[in-house]
Design a protein that fits this description.
Blueprint lengths: L11 E6 L5 E6 L5 E4 L3 H20 L12 E6 L6 E7 L5 E7 H15 L14
Length: 132
């Protein structure tokens, strides 16, 4: 049985968004550019993050390895379309940003957990806090 045909990409030279925002154009080691439609970008982001983590665990033969990226800066703001949510934004070196929407109650719990794990709160002060 023959192997399925795959486009092997092992380097990216450039990428840019088309003027209408419909496609992300990738130029890599292949002669043709690759156009990714905006409708698949969210799924691709999640798939790539998951694949990097899985790859690290397989290659290092450790089940507890987490995929992490450096954080150059972060910001917390209100979701303009949702009054019950906050937006947590993390900036990566190079300027790319990842933002997450979080319910106020979850953010409150996260604050308690961060206080506990950083030592800002004592264990007896945070007896109702559960690490997730």
């Amino acid at each position: 049985m023959s192997q399925p045909v795959a486009l092997a990409i092992h380097s990216l030279h450039s990428f840019e968004l088309t003027g209408d925002g419909q496609y992300l154009m990738l130029k890599g080691n292949q002669p043709d550019r690759i156009a990714l439609h905006y409708s698949v970008m969210h799924e691709l982001l999640a798939a790539i993050s998951n694949a990097i983590g899985w790859s690290e665990r397989v290659r290092q033969k450790k089940d507890d390895v987490k995929f992490t990226m450096p954080c150059e800066a972060w910001a917390v703001g209100k979701d303009k379309s949702e009054t019950t949510h906050l937006v947590l934004t993390f900036r990566l070196p190079g300027g790319a940003e990842l933002s997450f929407r979080m319910h106020h109650a979850d953010a409150r719990h996260m604050t308690e957990v961060l206080s506990l794990v950083t030592g800002l709160a004592k264990v007896n002060e945070a007896s109702s806090v559960q690490l997730q």
